[in-house]
Write a structure and sequence with these properties.
Two copies of one chain form a homodimer. Chain A is an alpha/beta fold. Chain A has 13 helices and twelve strands. Chain A starts with 6 loop residues before the first helix and ends with a helix. Chains A, B: Keywords: Aminotransferase, Pyridoxal phosphate, Transferase.
Chain lengths: 367, 367
């Protein structure tokens, strides 16, 4: 007799939110020449963070501090909040999982955009939540529609990424501030700012950290180039932050990662360099798109979404052609955004590989 | 208005399973001279693992492989199972949390020993499970009583650590094999073998990896000295292993930790050295106890539980006296085991600090 799973677990499908590039590499029997599919930051962590993590390797016999005290102090000071407003966790993915667990019982309504972050959806479904999806407005998430639907279905939770993934679009701070003011009583806005370091000044809203209507997420995976370290944080009212302590894996943080994140925060100059390199990579990706008769969408992230100009089937062919030439990229899952492919910013050699692969893939896709 | 938490979350207390040593250090305003309280392995990771993690620091811009493919292959080969029998996760703590989520709905019965691993209890309570605790038999967990109670309450899950924490005691393989044969239909035995590398040959039971009645947990935190890295695994029937994929944080593993664990597995000579060093530390701790008129209990782990010879109040005074002298140790939480203090094996300098602190703490406790 099998173990007796919960009724919810029995009902869950055996899907995964994303297939990793290593899985593709094993299938094709060779590593990728360029890794531009997961919005990893190929410019890498700050040398200070690398040195700190490297030096911390011998000390990995010790558990990490379960309170993440030093990291929370530093984050709080930078964000202008108190440490009681900060929760540190195993990536935004890990924190979204905890948040879903805190709020969502079977049947509880949750609102997101159709085509937004699949891992959010995975966690909501994993706790039995019911997802209500509103369409994007063109290539932008639609705050007004999200709020409207949230009222309609009495949503416990609303998800918005600003800047957005997978389209790279963004709203200004004032749009988000207006949205927050309209969050219905008893709803919580999960504002995913994973890409905020790449966005223009004036994108991050001003939020009262005691506002019970919103929790904002930041990560070391993108701007700080430390996706493999698994460190992110959220800022919210102390009551909500304290609730995470009821359910989280208290000793779940990698000790070297804690130390590396702290070092990364102390190297603003490197972050600025990274942002400048990403801007140059965007210009290059825009040029590559144009050379191939395609249009790159404006981006406030570390990736560029390129409109392949036809439908999803065509873009999937282009993607397959790029991938089989050793360049790992991904694309939006949902129409009409699946007319696009999504390419992460990265060092020149990686973009060269993409530049070489794209025209061949396009020619093939065009038959 | 606050976010609307689940009814279960509203009912959960704001407790944490363990307070980290860093919290004590902040309270006392100084770091500990010796860190012997969390059964960390002060002999540290294999130099190969340190080198591998250090070298992987620059590559932390990449997410870890969500399938943990290489690590699972190697673990499977060593354990004589297939990769489909292996799940890798963020420490045994992380895996126990996933297991609780897979099996436990509100009100579901779970059986453990009174005084066994608090983090298991934390996860069960966190999913609304009802814990039924059976007493130890002296200083040993009582497999017969666990099975009996599991039948009585129709337990979905049974927890047993072998070797045991916090008492350091153990049962032979044949006792565990007999226990597994008696696991009731529809119950699952969670066999926590965190300390197995330190146990005498003949402690690890032979288990059919397709047996649906048992899941065994192993970790890199103890024998391999990598607690801060957060890598553990479980071996179970493929159906149960596949169920973890429905709920786990697929990109939750630190990439350098994956690489370090793989390197650690390839250094059996270092593991053997560690085990020998721990045995020598045990001899030293036994001698320290004897010099102070106390009895050290036999141990198949990397810690020694020392009977202070009186009641819990006395042992708590001894512990406080040791801790205030800069030596981090812990003690069992539950009577009658709280007559003991628990001291991790460690390098000589750390044991020297304990040897210096103990007689003073004892004198103070005796008034």
């Amino acid at each position: 007799m099998s173990p007796r799973y919960t009724r919810l677990v029995d009902s869950l499908p055996a899907t995964v939110p994303f297939v990793g590039p290593e899985t593709n590499e094993r299938a094709r029997g060779a590593v990728f020449d360029a890794r531009l599919g997961a919005n990893e930051n190929g410019f890498g962590p700050s040398p200070r963070a690398i040195a700190a993590m490297s030096a911390a390797s011998a000390g990995q016999w010790m558990y990490g501090d379960p309170e993440n005290f030093d990291l929370k102090q530093t984050i709080a000071a930078r964000m202008g909040v108190t440490p009681a407003h900060v929760i540190v966790g195993e990536g935004i993915d890990g924190l979204l999982g905890y948040l879903a667990r805190l709020l969502i019982e079977q049947g509880d309504p949750v609102v997101t955009s159709d085509g937004a972050y699949p891992t959010f959806n995975y966690h909501i479904a994993g706790f039995g939540g019911v997802l209500h999806k509103v369409p994007y407005l063109g290539d932008h998430e639609d705050p007004t529609a999200l709020i409207h639907r949230a009222r309609e279905v009495n949503a416990k939770l609303i998800y918005l990424a600003n800047p957005d993934n997978p389209m790279g679009s963004w709203h200004s701070a004032s749009v988000i501030e207006t949205m927050i003011a309209q969050v219905p009583d008893g709803s919580l806005l999960a504002l995913d700012e994973a890409y905020i370091e790449f966005a223009p000044t004036g994108t991050a809203p001003s939020i009262d950290p005691d506002d019970p209507r919103v929790i904002r997420f930041r990560t070391f995976s993108k701007g700080y180039g430390m996706a493999g370290a698994r460190v992110a944080y959220a800022i919210a009212a102390p009551g909500l932050i304290a609730a995470f302590d009821k359910v989280r894996n208290h000793f779940g943080m990698n000790r070297a990662a804690q130390i590396g994140a702290l070092a990364a925060l102390q190297d603003d100059a490197y972050l600025a360099q990274t942002v400048a390199k990403v801007a140059r990579a965007h210009a290059r990706l825009n040029a590559i798109a144009a050379e191939n008769g395609l249009r790159a969408l404006p981006s406030a992230t570390n990736f560029v979404t390129i409109d392949c100009g036809k439908d999803g089937d065509f873009a999937r062919k282009v993607l397959a052609g790029v991938v089989k030439r050793g360049v790992f990229i991904r694309m939006p899952f949902v129409a009409p955004h699946d007319r696009c492919i999504r390419v992460s910013a990265g060092p020149d050699a990686q973009l060269d590989a993409f530049a070489a692969a794209l025209p061949l893939a396009l020619a093939e896709a065009r038959g």
